[in-house]
Design a protein that fits this description.
With 60 residues, this protein is an all-alpha fold. It contains three helices and no strands.
Length: 60
């Protein structure tokens, strides 16, 4: 029984990769996929330009 409870170094590394690496990779992949799907249309771009010019004028 005690033989099964011992963790060798390779099992610890594998467990660490599974618990930390896989969720991190999934989050990064999801973020990249969401960023790739964002497309600005002309109205959205115009609204951003209006907001930017308003902020620029108010700081003077």
């Amino acid at each position: 029984m005690s033989r099964w409870l011992r963790w060798n170094e390779s099992a610890q590394i594998l467990l660490t990769l599974e618990l930390i690496g896989l969720p991190a990779t999934a989050l990064i992949g999801h973020g990249v996929r969401c960023l790739g799907s964002i497309q600005r249309d002309r109205a959205g771009e115009a609204a951003i330009q209006r907001d930017f010019s308003y902020v620029s004028r108010s700081r003077r």
